[in-house]
Amino acid sequence: MDYQHKSASKISTGDKFGKLSVLVRADKPKTKTFRDKMAYFICQCDCGAEVEKSSRYLLDNRNTKVMKSCGCEASSYTAQKNKDNSKHLLTTDRRYMVWSQMKQRCTNPKHNFWDRYGGRGIKVCERWLEPAPYGFYNFIEDMGERPDDKYKSGRSKYTIDRTDTDGDYTPENCRWATYKQQWETRHIYIKQKNAKLNN
Ligand SMILES: [Zn+2]
Questions:
Q1: How many angstroms does the Cα of residue 27 sit away from the middle of ligand 1?
Q2: pLDDT, average across residues 172-187
């Protein structure tokens, strides 16, 4: 059940993901966060940059709009979108609010929900914590498109969900999920956690 071993074994030197070619597995990943159990790989991007990417990022096929890269594809994608809609790009992308609120809850003691988030030690991973627009681009790169399913009111049915509700906002612990899905997995997760504790 260990994500690190299960997914890392599918990746080897020379594998190509979008513009990224895998060079070697990183011994001491720089971007690794405290809780994440992912394996990281040093990759060479077609543009020449060398970057460290997680197994999760490399194997994730949800975001088909932006090719995997050192980040240069995401920025050229954004630049293209930017051209179409220069001023309002960030604020019209509804995911921007999700990202910005997530940061607020965890970093701003004046936020209404501070007690349930930052106040009890829930953190946002470093990649997503970078200032706008970079943290937002990283967030999009890791989380991909939000499924396009809305309520009649126009509000999205999908919000950002943490599998481990005591865990941080990291790519490994987050996904887009409906409230119904969140309830279901939380239920199973708590059962598993309790079962572990009782053993
Ligand atoms: Zn690149």
A1: 22
A2: 86
Question: Domain range holding 68?
Answer: 1-84
0.85 exceeded by the pTM?
no
* 133 prior amide bond cis, ω within 30: yes
11 C-alpha to center of ligand 1: Å?
A: 19
- Asked if 54 and 38 touch (Cβ cutoff 8 Å), the reply is yes
Q: How confident is the model at residue 15 (pLDDT cuts 50, 70, 90)?
A: very high
Ligand 1 centre distance from Cα of residue 168 (Å): 28
> How far does the centroid of ligand 1 lie from the alpha carbon of residue 20, in Å?
8
CA 37 / ligand 1 centre spacing (Å): 25
The DSSP output letter for 106 is H
Ligand 1 centre to CA of 73 (Å) is 7
Give me the sheet containing 20-25, strands edge to edge: 16-17, 20-25, 40-45, 50-54
Rounded distance from Cα 49 to ligand 1 centre (Å): 6
Specify the number of domains making up the chain.
2
Can you tell me the distance from the alpha carbon of 81 to that of 85, in angstroms, rounded to the nearest whole number?
Answer: 6
Instruction: Compute the distance between CA of residue 70 and CA of residue 42 in angstroms, rounded to an integer.
Output: 10
Q: Can you tell me whether residue 170 is helix, strand or coil?
A: coil
Domain boundary among 54, 84, 114: 84
